[in-house]
Amino acid sequence: MTSLDKQPSAEQESGRGLEASQETDTPEGQAAAKTALLEAFGGVRGMIDTTVPGLVFVVLYTIKRDIQFAALISLGLTLALALIRLAQRDTLKHAFSGVFGVAFGAVFAMMSGNAKDFYLPGMLYTLGLSFAYILSAIFRFPLIGVLLGPILKENLSWRTRNPGRFKAYTKATWAWGLILLGKSAILFPIYWWGDVTQLGWIKVALGVPPFLLCVYLTWIFLAKAPAPIDVIAEMEAEEKAAAEKERQL
Q1: Could you tell me where the DSSP H helices lie in the chain?
Q2: Share of the chain above pLDDT 90, in %
Q3: What is the pLDDT of residue 48?
């Protein structure tokens, strides 16, 4: 039995839950938790990285009607944003996802000659992600828990030792899946029957609000759930106790 699965005593669980609750029940703790949750999904800079290139593309294409020009400028802007992150030694995870998304979109649009294809890779990614969230919730392995568990130092302990958090992660995962599916349900008909200007502006408009709604709902669900079990602290305590026991022998 590993330290992640070991069942601690009721006294240990109660003490740890009280300590974690005291940390998050204060205004400072709640603000820090909200910030950490937002940053886990890319934060403000992540929203900029994913929204601005699409906005630049639709503006330039509306003005010049040149797919290649608009696509290359948008790709160059995305690379510039990634280089700024690199220079500041900031995380590149979200920047690189933006670079690849814009790069695929630029290639698709230039190869097909259809400006709407600039947005197609991102739309397909959103649709696929919505199905991934929904299926993970159905099969009782909610992706939001998988993503946030390591950040909140609980790893996967919520699956076997914290049923309240398991339920909260499941609700949050359903929220992400259904909201992203609703976003796809709006965008794909416009892709098929609308023009590129309509698609571009609506995609930009649907970039930030659904994301913020998902983050907000996740925060609400987790705020009402039991405190996370800090398995990292548990393992460190076990290692310290084992080392102390060896010194006494």
Answers
A1: 10-25, 27-40, 43-64, 67-87, 93-112, 120-138, 143-151, 157-160, 163-193, 196-205, 208-223, 231-248
A2: 37
A3: 75
Residue with token string 């601690």: 8
**Scanning the structure block, which residue is given the tokens 């099969």?**
139
Specify the higher pLDDT residue, 27 or 238: 238
Cβ partners under 8 Å of residue 128, min gap 6: none
Integer angstrom CA distances of residue 74 from 44, 69, 70, 113, 229: 19, 9, 6, 16, 43
CA distance 60 to 64: 6
Contact 85, 99 (CB under 8 A): no
Answer yes or no: pTM beyond 0.85.
Answer: no
Select from 138, 118, 133 the least CA-distant residue to 204: 118
Decide if 196 contacts 116 (C-beta within 8 A).
yes
Contacts of 103 (CB under 8 A, 6+ apart): 75, 78
Q: ∠ CA(237), CA(240), CA(246), 5° rounding?
A: 140
